[in-house]
Amino acid sequence: MSQEGDFRDLVDLAAERLGGAVLWANDDFFAPKENLLKASKPVWLEHEYTDRGKWMDGWESRRRRVPGHDTALLRLGLPGVLRGLVVDTSFFRGNYPESCAVEGTTAPLGTDTDTLLGPTVKWFELLPRSALMGDSQNPFAVTDHRAVTHLKLHIFPDGGVARLRVHGAVLPDWSRSGGTGGELDLAAVEHGGEVLTCSDMFFGPKHNLILPGRGVNMGDGWETRRRRGPGHDWVLLKLGAPGTLRRVEVDTNHFKGNYPDTCSLDAILLPDGSPEALTAPDAPWRELLPRTKLQAHTRHFFTDALRDLGRVSHVRLNVYPDGGVSRLRLHGTVALEDRYALGLRRLEALPEDELRARLASCCGASRWLSMVTEAMVKREVTRVEGLFGASDAALDALDRDGWLEAFRAHPRIGEKKAEASQSEQSRRWSSGEQSGMDAASEDTVARLAEANRAYDQRFGQVFIVCATGRSARELLSLLEARLGNDPATELRVASEEQKKITRLRLEKLLLG
Q1: What range does the domain containing 361 cover?
Q2: In sequence order, what are the beta bridge partners of 70?
Q3: Is residue 342 a part of any domain in this protein?
Q4: Quick one: 242 and 324 in the same domain?
Q5: What is the mean pLDDT of the chain?
Q6: pTM of the entire predicted model
């Protein structure tokens, strides 16, 4: 068992209010599986019984009389990389499990329970079988870097667990928000926002500031104690991605006699800055919103009052002198370079087989696929430029057979189906890349078919061209012109076109 660590300060990815749910358990005879994720702390009711036995605030299975163990299946509210787990056995004293283990997987949104429990879903170990103590909060650190969407909690052999907390870093599924091309709340927990530290949170946890929806009561916000000396309170947030902030909302919902009198916002661009560096006296913070009067129980919106600071990575909310804020929304746009970086983070967190499948859509050469996958699995690629560099190096390592394998993964110009099998993603990309063919005349289509046959006979390979943005007439002209090349020259030209296609597809993969 690990010592209690900083991971408890991270968001609970399985929280019910974020969409977490217990989907299935093989046995919950004494107490229902749904109790595992209840937001409240477990309670003990001394004389409370049900028709099945003692009432317990947790998940409890019957006493096992046959070999095996009990299991619960959970869906996380937000996908992410786990940093630690707390298996809470509060009030389970003579009926707690001897040990537990946890597995994880990544599955598409909406995957049904039967599929998750079936043979097609691959699960991997996050926590090996580990001893538990009764009536205790049992914390375990997790070091696996892969993202997960679902968990299996195994208890050995049976017994009760009051609560399960799953702490980690959110890895946003940007497709749920329509992608990263528009304006987003960059502070929202579902978009990877994180509250790093604050001056005080005596009455309300700091993470409440960035939860979905409006606060449900005064306890569902960030609130400091009453300040009796000089100074003011503050809270420091890391955006889900560096961005340019366009609109801010400070919501004092439910705070009526205890809202801050005024607030201000500062911002900084220091993407990899530690809390220590960000709170240092010489940290280069700049004013985003000047000190502004607040009202009780009110949503305050700011646009024109915001200063244009360009890209920022962190924001500090200052409240004067103290009090409570329900929610903070920081809406902004993300630059292309930062969108690529987000995509790389998603790829890095995929299980190896899933990563390999995604990369296979970008290039059909098996040697390229193995080299790039290996570089990412070994953590040799840390920046987007490194991914493009690894791709170019892998392509440069191909021999003639490797290039031909890559070419065969593409349909001929004017056709819809490649000789080799394509993934669904690759087929969609091919169709989009050849969208210039949609308006082609019958004569152009016929001439392309004839030129493709002539090209096959002359070179014994598929004609490869980066077709993105080119019309059918342009493609025909390029094909006819390249028929005059000698085989060595044509292989070199086709290889350069394959490089362009691979680079464009990697960019699409990062933005997808």
Answers
A1: 351-511
A2: 155
A3: no
A4: yes
A5: 93
A6: 0.88
